[in-house]
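User: My collaborator sent over this chain with a note saying "see what the structure looks like." That's all I know about it. Can you take a look?
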Amino acid sequence: MKAGVVAVQGDVTEHATAVRRAAKAHGEAVEVVEVRDSGIVPDCDVLLMPGGESTTISRLIHREGIAPEIRDHVANGKPVLATCAGLIVCSRDAKDDRVDPIGLVDVSVDRNAFGRQKDSFETSIPVKGLSEPFHAVFIRAPLIDGIGADVEVLARIDDRPVLVRDGPVVATSFHPELTDDPRIHDLAFFPETEVAA
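Assistant: Without extra context I'll predict from the sequence alone. Here is the result:
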């Protein structure tokens, strides 16, 4: 399996480690490649859109010609995991003129809705499809405040969606790569089985 991590900006190393951990738990060999230019995504089986600065990520994936390749990846039914800023970039509506979203997930988002860096927090959340709660890390997290009819909500906090699936795309408000628990990456890339936390 070849896993591409969109590496124009954001927490690339942590996602590379997380997808390797998830693949190993399923007995899969994985090659992780960093995506900074066009021409790499078409060879990838799965993609990760990491957190970081959504305005910068958006600008660079459009400038480098990566955005249309990501859209084609999803159109071909290949999985994507988009976390935090990745969720914003993959949304239908980022509600911010500085972000040109690529519309992979039929949601609207409110950037930094959970607060600034000082308002970051961690909490355990029940997740549909997981037998035990997931310890989620929220850092300047976006709020999903509008959802299309075909979007499945997998987890909420105070009735606010924080983990959704839209076709082959799983998107989170939090940072699953900042824990040692591979189960969110499992949901995205190995949905048939669950490994232990």
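A starting point for your reply to your collaborator: Helices lie at 12-25, 54-63, 67-75, 85-90, 183-189.
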